[in-house]
């Protein structure tokens, strides 16, 4: 009897492993599910049947027949379950096909088995992000076309006026130079933004005193602040604080934030550049005493070509790329940037930089 049992067990094990190996090589999930269901029922039944034929009588064989019927019912249930799983996968497969065909609004249906539902959720998150990126690209093209067209049209009008003898070259030369500089600045911003988005920006990092960065940035905007009647101040609690950064890139971030703060601060108001230590990071905050920022601007002010004040789109105050570039430069340093409203009025834009090795400013 022991020999018969060992033979049956060995045969069942070999048949199961062989069938599993064959199923694993198949590319169709439907075939694998059906095969798995059949394998899970048939191998034990065949083992019991073979044992019954060897060792049992008629009554026992009748019981084995009933077991076969029960196994067939289990196989039918497994096939139905496999069909449900396959239908969920088919529905999930339709969503990527729709996105690939250009329908970026397509989403995978939810509510299936937990694993498939989690996969659908992951795909939907990816599809939403992809749709946002394409929307951003469309906005980028539209705004870039608008901001390039304006100075080009102005240059064309001035050149035609000179050609027709309506104005002398010397009269329009300063205006032409200003428009060319505006075009050059926009092209430089677009190039910088493309490098940031592609992760192709190389930073010349070195240890730099934070006080020197603040002093230089405040000095560059002091004349504009005086013309606007706005007081500019700096708050550096510890002159010894040192950050690891590319000074020219951090200077560009500070210039942009200070200039924006000046534009939104009323006459006799104040713009302050304050530093605060946060462990391994140093916070640089640009605060103004203006009207603060509405919720939509707080949520989108770092997006490409976002201009919360429609008047700025008409007065030539930049192409709306400065804050997007500022975010990219800060993140390239491993820092964070965000905006918030102050309790006492006005806005506050904060970004972080890593402190130099061996230096940990206190809070």
Outline the fold blueprint.
Blueprint: H1 2-24, H2 29-55, H3 58-100, H4 114-163, H5 169-198, E1 206-209, H6 210-228, E2 231-235, E3 242-245, H7 247-263, E4 270-278, E5 281-288, H8 295-300, H9 322-332, E6 337-341, E7 347-354
Parallel strand pairs: 2-4
Antiparallel strand pairs: 1-3, 4-5, 5-7, 6-7
Helix pairs in contact: 1-2, 2-3, 3-4, 4-5, 5-9, 6-7, 7-9
Distinctive features:
single chain; two-stranded antiparallel ribbon; Heat Shock Protein 90; Helix Hairpins; 363 residues; 3 domains; 62% helix; 9 helices; alpha+beta
Task: Give your account of this protein's structure.
With 363 residues, the chain is α+β, with helices and mostly antiparallel strands. Helix content is 62%, strand content 12%. The strands form 2 sheets. The chain has a 5-stranded mixed β-sheet with strand order 2-4-5-7-6. A two-stranded antiparallel ribbon has the order 1-3.
Put the structure in a nutshell:
The chain has 363 residues and is α+β, with helices and mostly antiparallel strands. It has nine helices and seven strands; from the N terminus they run αααααβαββαββααββ. It is elongated and about 105 Å long.
